[in-house]
């Protein structure tokens, strides 16, 4: 007998409290190098802040930017999306995709760690 298991994680779109509390001075983010693969269980929310990327909020309060291809507009994911981790329980750039609730999908080209500018 062979048992197959598939896990799909729904990532809700959230409002960033740092932006809404500081309307006159929104947070500016700098991109830094990030690991190629991320543990899927760490993602707790997302925000669309750019035409070709999705910002992912992590349990520890940090952020990652998932860069998508230029032919894949992030606005397609505005109503929410799903991530399906590999058998290793991770989401990896150049391997995994973000799937929109409408049925489309885009491969993640890279991850970038976001650091608030001071």
From TrEMBL:
Name of the molecule in the record: Uncharacterized protein
């Amino acid at each position: 007998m062979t048992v197959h298991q598939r896990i799909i994680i729904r990532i809700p779109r959230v409002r960033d409290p740092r932006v809404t509390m500081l309307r006159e001075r929104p947070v500016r983010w700098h991109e830094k190098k990030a690991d190629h693969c991320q543990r899927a269980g760490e993602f707790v929310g997302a925000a669309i802040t750019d035409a070709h990327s999705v910002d992912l909020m992590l349990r520890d309060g940090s952020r990652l930017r998932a860069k998508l291809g230029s032919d894949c507009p992030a606005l397609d994911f505005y109503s929410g999306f799903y991530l399906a981790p590999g058998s290793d329980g991770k989401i990896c750039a150049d391997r995994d995709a973000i799937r929109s609730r409408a049925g489309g999908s885009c491969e993640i080209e890279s991850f970038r760690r976001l650091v608030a500018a001071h």
